[in-house]
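Re: GLP structure - here you go.
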Amino acid sequence: MEVLIHTTATEGAQVVADVVERAVRSGPAVLGLATGSSPLLAYRELIRRHREEGLSFAAVDAYLLDEYVGLPAGHPEFYREVIRRELTDHLDMRSVHAPDGTHPDPPAAAAAYERSLPSVGVQILGIGANGHVGFNEPGSSLTSGTRVKTLTRRTREDNARFFADDVDQVPRHVITQGLGTIGRAGHLLLTATGEHKAAAVAAAVEGPLTASCPASILQWHPHVTIVLDDAAASQLERADFYRETADRKPAWAR
Ligand code: GLP
């Protein structure tokens, strides 16, 4: 696990964009996309590189991590819509896939999405303040596949900002790739910023591997990069070591 700590979120976004760019330039790629605010600066940087530096996504297929269930079709807060607005409408991406949150049989839609997933190269991840990844809330099976989950009150409150600050408008149910599904991606790239993520980041990176902190499954994966700003890293006990490791990286390790 590589932990990279930057002074500002903008610097971290450059690193996330660098990892994605490398994957995209190396040939046809399957990219796992997260919604939420954490990757937004990196997405803007990728759009800039597409416009100004000719970075093409024409050989990239993207798969979303998760989706709300039960919003009216076309609702602007469906993650499928959010990712279009924030990223893929501005790129030449070959295809974008998401679980079908409007399907009358959500468990069947979840199973169909799991079956449709190819082998993901880089999977971008955020982290919830309670340690969730995707929408795998605390208590999620560490080997779970894509399925329907119920959101905790905490997550619904955290996401109420996207629903006119009205928690009652935030759906209770979602379809999310499971922790086992996420673990099959080749490279997990988690980004977090801000003090409000510091406890979850510390639990995920330095706490025990436990379903009580779903993001701790990152410890079980052979290729993980965690990109933080100083505030999100502020509760890490080994922060000095991570900084020193990054600062003194030999050329052959870059
Ligand atoms: C959301 C999403 C996750 C996201 C996380 C953090 O509820 N389901 O994919 O990574 O919670 O969100 P944010 O980046 O907005 O803090």
